[in-house]
Amino acid sequence: MSQIRGRFSKAADKRAAEFTASIHSDWRLYSHDIAGSIAHARMLGKQGIITGQEAETIIKALTDIREEIEQGKLEFKPELEDIHMSIEARLLEKVGEVGGKLHTARSRNDQVALDLRLFTKEAISGALSSLRELQQALVTKAGASIDVVIPGYTHLQRAQPVLLAHHLLAYFEMLQRDKERFNDCFKRTDVLPLGSGALAGVAYEIDRDSVAKELGFSRVSPNSIDAVSDRDFLLEYEAAASLCMMHLSRLAEEIILWSSEEFGFIELDDAYATGSSIMPQKKNPDTAELIRGKTGRVYGQLMALLTTMKALPLAYNRDIQEDKEGFFDIVDTLLSSLKVFTGMITTLKVKTENTRKATEQGYVLATDIADYLVKKGEPFRTAHDIVARLIGYAAEKEKTFTQLELTEYQRFSPLFDNNVYSITVESSVAARNNAGGTAPQRVTEALSRAKKMLGGSTDGN
Ligand code: ARG
């Protein structure tokens, strides 16, 4: 069996055949294709569309074919076009004509949609459990560094002190939303398209519900035309993956900055860094850089599929075959990025002497000093202005807040007294004790909440 050529008088041009083939990428759907075919054959047998004996023969052969593929014994040939034809051709080789009955009441259009949905459901589960592992790593690192304060930044300028744990838990929240998005996407992926035929449904008394049940789908698609032409579930996975990669890329960027000599907040484990071929002193954060880099590739694939689907008339068009390569690439990139990130976070060391030093420089307590004046009755805007002038003066004298004499403070406001020296990095974070704030008490609560969320369920939520 080769490509379907029934009504044609010529074989396909070799180049055209290679061009239209997709086996180089869709072989990855083999186990899903076989699972779908087994469920379909069983249903055909039960419904009396084929005999029970024929169904058994087909199912047994399909099970053997799965073995052959897993053991690398089945060679995929480009002239067989795709995974569906490859498996069917092997089935015919094994059982003869009866194998040809498998494709009763089915089209490759509903078949490929089914395979992809089965694959996507697995990919979502994989993403959820890897996201959970990364969240766990962040929580562990946050717990271990609960007393570490870093300067928080806006515009990449030192802004206010925050707990490193609070900063890390910000990423926990992003990943939590990523999980929510994948779970949401799962709901719309969890729909059986088989039974839609080429586009109009099939002219046999099939039992879609039993197939859905066997394959673990909670619903059957309500419109055959939509079911064979819809790739929203792939796009949703890809969009969720893009957002997730964006989050990873932001943390990767911070890790790159933090591990530089200029910041020196962390040291990456040797296992996650690389040397330079020319500069012996280098320890490069290549892993983080590649996560940042691969984010672009994931966005690109999302954009490619959006563009492919745009303006396609109903129902199936061959353009849709272009969905797979980019999708598989995203699935692989996302999973490997999440896994490697988890290891990188787990093994990195925080250099507390440097984080400490960074909070002592750069006037990160300026807001607290303004707040101090506000508590003594000064309107915030005036207090802001006083502290801004005070900083101008201190910077010129090259003094930190603690190095300024009280008399120097008092030149800017008579409200300053000795209590101004009790404003510290610790008092600053402790003061931000409202819900969602960086006070140690709040962050400890946030950590327990996060641990509880991770401990809670088995579906990765
Ligand atoms: N390889 C095809 C794909 O991935 C399978 C569906 C083929 N359908 C068709 N009408 N040519 O989209």
Write up this protein:
This protein is mainly alpha-helical. It folds into 3 domains: 14-104, Fumarase/aspartase (N-terminal domain) (Fumarase C, Chain B, domain 1, Orthogonal Bundle), CATH 1.10.275.10; 109-146 and 162-356, Fumarase/aspartase (Central domain) (Fumarase C, Chain A, domain 2, Up-down Bundle); 358-447, Ribonucleotide Reductase Protein R1, domain 1 (Orthogonal Bundle). The chain is built from 18 helices and 6 strands. The chain has helices at 14-20, 23-26, 30-46, 52-70, 83-95, 108-144, 164-189, 208-215, 224-229, 232-258, 286-309, 323-347, 352-360, 366-375, 380-397, 406-410, 425-431, 440-456; strands at 149-154, 157-163, 191-192, 219-220, 266-267, 349-350. The strands form 3 sheets. A two-stranded antiparallel ribbon has the order 1-2. Strands 3-4 form a two-stranded parallel ribbon. A hairpin with a 2-residue loop joins β1 (149-154) and β2 (157-163). α3 (30-46) packs across α6, α3 packs antiparallel against α8 and α7 (164-189) runs antiparallel to α10 (232-258). The longest helix has 37 residues, at 108-144. The mean pLDDT is 95. Bound molecules: arginine (ARG). Residues 22, 26, 82, 108-109, 112, 316, 318, 320-321 line the site of arginine (ARG). Arginine binds next to α6.
CATH architecture annotation name of the largest domain: Up-down Bundle
> Kindly state the mean pLDDT as a whole number?
95
**Total count of domains:** 3
Cα-atom radius of gyration: 30 Å
Widest sheet: strand order?
A: 1-2
**What is the global morphology?**
elongated
Oligomer: single chain
Query: How far is the first residue's CA from the last residue's CA?
Result: 46 Å
Q: Which spans of ≥5 residues are poorly predicted at pLDDT below 50?
A: none
Bound molecules: arginine
CATH topology call of the largest domain: Fumarase C, Chain A, domain 2
CATH superfamily of the largest domain: Fumarase/aspartase (Central domain)
How much helical structure, as a percent, in the residues? 55-70%
The major sheet is characterized as: 2 strands, antiparallel
